[in-house]
Amino acid sequence: MTAAQFKSNRFDLAVDTISRADLEEVIAWLRKYPRLTMGEESKRFEQAWSKWLGVKYSVMCNSGASANLLMYAALESAGRAGKRKVVVPATGWVTDIAPAIQFGWQPIMCESDPVTFGLNMDSLAKILKRDHPENVVLVHVLGVPVNMTRLLALQKQYGFNIIEDCCASHGSRHQGRLVGTFGLISVFSFYYGHHMSTVEGGMLCTNDEHIYHHLLMLRSHGWLKDLPAADARRIMKKYRVDPFHAPFTFTIPGFNLRPTEISARTGSIQLRKLDATIRRRVANHLIYQKRLNGAVDFARGIPGDVISSISFCAVAKSAAQRRKIIETLDKKRIDTRIFTAGNLGRHPFWADRFGVFSAPVADKLYRGGFFLPNNQSLQGTDIEYICGVVRKALE
Prior knowledge:
By secondary structure, the protein is α/β, with parallel strands linked by helices. It has helices at 20-30, 40-53, 64-77, 98-102, 121-131, 148-158, 209-219, 229-238, 261-271, 274-292, 319-331, 348-354, 360-368, 380-393, and strands at 57-61, 85-89, 106-110, 135-139, 161-165, 173-174, 177-178, 185-189, 202-206, 297-298, 311-315, 369-373.
């Protein structure tokens, strides 16, 4: 079985990145009867990921959504949350916002940018001046980097934590620098159909040792046993813990969001071919931009940035036009869907609590946004064909 044989349509939005060869390698490892709960394989994958991304510390967990949960918990646990005000993007994913609501933070929604579909810097500047939030969560939407140059300038002016959601943007770069290396914490997802998969899995990355230690504890019940030995001894001494009790001493209220060794082993195998997957996605995205220019709207990105997209997001002029395009794509067995969230401020989880958030760009994405396939199984000729179908639908 190859990755392409998982396809249900002529062109799927997502195909499995785990190949037969990958599975056979995992099976060969399983025949050695290794430990399957979190252990050395997880540590090896975390170290390999840190080296690939260029950060000091990485912590694997059981999903990208859990990574979002842990990033909020770590900020609070490590004393970095301030008064728990956080700017959240109108365009992104629900788990970028849900933990703020669950933990009793004050989320402030920000308009989307017409060039990147990420945070709109003009809108953000107004929020920073008005509300003085201590935290800003951003999403590199579908792999299109946020204008990090402007964001860093705003951070220097106002002072706040930058939290990057890179769950769908592995390998994207802003002005040569990999996304996921700008923030205090960055998160990645390894779900099915993403740039690489561990079946289920996520990763949190940071250069801050204090945050790293809190992530380790929060991931596993809040206990000491996953900390480096010297740091565990320091906490034991502070609280006068008998060494006999140390492995099962709980210092902060945590969760159980650990990965399995099977997921970690799969991740290490997948990481070896990630760069090739990124090159294909980047090339496909450029073809979409060239062929659909003038036909539909899309996030053009900051000049000089590299867009490693999970899907290509196109935007029709209206809901009716989007419906016509989607119906045509469906007839040609080209997988698509509406822009999954569009404007999160129009979804009940937000509107019921804070009222409907309405903003021009976010609303435009909500009404007209739809996805086109971009994955490692698609070649340039495939993208050319898909673009032709979209253009034909608009005639």
